[in-house]
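== Polypeptide entry ==
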Amino acid sequence: SVKAVSLLAGDSRLTGIAAEIMGCVMIPFKATLFEKTGKANWLVAFHQDTALPLCRPTDRDGWGPHSVKEGIVFAHAPTRALIRILALRVHLDASDEDNGPLRVIPSTHHGRIRDEDEFAHAVRLKPAVKCLVEKGGVIAMSPLIIHASSKSAKDHPRRVLHIEYTSTMEIDPDVFLTTA
C-alpha cells in the first residue's frame, strides 16, 4: 500500500542512512517498486536517471525536456539538482546472478553525460559491477551512476523498492514535487 511505502521511506533507519551518506537531513520524495520475475521480465540498458517530478513545468536553466507520466510533470534535471538526490534500494528478495541484478559502472556518478559517444566510452571504459544483495539488504546509489539490469534467467522474483531522497535544504517548493 502507499501508506506502508510512505512509512518505510520515512523510517529513521533509511533516512539515517541517506543523511549519513549525504551529510544533511534527507526526505523521501519518490518510490518505485520493481518486480522482476520469469513472467514479468525486462532488460534495462545502461542509463542515468535524470528525470525528476515537478509541481509544474519550469523553464529554469538546465531543466527539460518535460513529460507527463500518470498526471505528474517530470523534467530532465541539471547535474546541480541530480547530485542532491540519493536512491536507497530496499531488496524485498535476494538479488543474485540469475534474477537480473542491478549492474553499475563504477565512478560514473559525477555528472550528467549528454553526449552519446562520451556515454558509450564510459560504459566501455570499466567493467560493470553486479550488485548482489541479500533479502532485506539496502543499496545506496546516485541517480547519475550509469546502471542497467539484465533479464531474469530464472523464475524467482527480484522485488526492489527504489526510494529517492533529497535534502530539505535544497528544495524549491515552487518547482520540486516532494510527495511520493
